[in-house]
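Worked Example 4.2. Consider the chain below.
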Amino acid sequence: MASVIESATQLATDLVKAIDIQAPSLDRPFGLHLWPLFDTVWTRFAGYPAREMVFKYGETPIGTMREAGGLIIAYYLIIFGGREIMRPFKPFKLNGLFQIHNLMLTLISGSLLLLFLEHLIPEVWRNGLLHGICSIEGGWQPLVALYYLNYLTKFVELLDTVFLVVKKKPLTFLHCYHHGATALLCYTQLIGSTSVSWVPITLNLFVHVVMYWYYFQSARGIRVWWKQWITRLQIIQFVIDLGFVYFASYTYFTSTYWPWMPNAGSCAGEEYAAFSGMGILSSYLFLFISFYFSTYKKGGKTAANKAVTSGDISIDPKFTESVIDSVKANGAAKKNGSVRSRRA
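Applying the procedure from the previous section yields the following structure tokens:
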């Protein structure tokens, strides 16, 4: 116990020493230099500086397809098996844990986003966007530690579905597909060293800050007006993602196999990672657009309830939960001859 306290005290001392606050500039866009703080914590636990992080297949934890795939398969076994186990039991509330889970993911997503931006803003400004998305030195090697931590958070986010199971809410196809496929997507990009990965990752982190903050507020019983914007932001995110990913893939393949075609030169990354990125992100865009129109544009809550209960288009359990609860509440109110409001 004494050693733990001593270690924590030393870490706190090192963090205070690493604080570097200057006027905001191109190299310090937030005034406070964030990387030394992150590097201090990383070095304390990893034993080496964060910029020296190298993802090694078979050595880095959860660094092989067997390990990543095994966890994804275990995820599906747990949620579908758990659904059957929960059938004779009453749903659990777990509201306190649910709030902690969402607040934690909000803070993690926000911290990673700021660390990415601190490097990318001066990098893109000085060397150009093409260098940032296609060069190992620009958008990959300095940020491997952040890519890896973002990858690990995808397994933490699988707990979203565990909460859904113990609350006895519907398990929709799309929610389960989205969570498992995202973990696989991040793994393929990590082992494929795709420099363009920072584009979908930073956009996703921004959306997750908004999304998990909404879930945290909703769990506290606070209603917000911008819920629709979560889905809109997700759709915008995937449109931008695909523009960058398709461009990076196009210029790689044309410069490699058909150099006579117009291209911007080679682009860092493995071919299987390019196909994985294009395929999974394209499916996300199609499914999120379907979700948006079915929920907000075609028939309102009636269409949303039908789509959710059929398991065709729902993406996230919290969206599913709020839609179903709202529809059920309105239906009950109509039967009683009055209209009652329900907090989202």
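The chain has 14 helices and no strands. The chain has two domains: 1-52, 53-335. Compare this with Example 4.1 before moving on.
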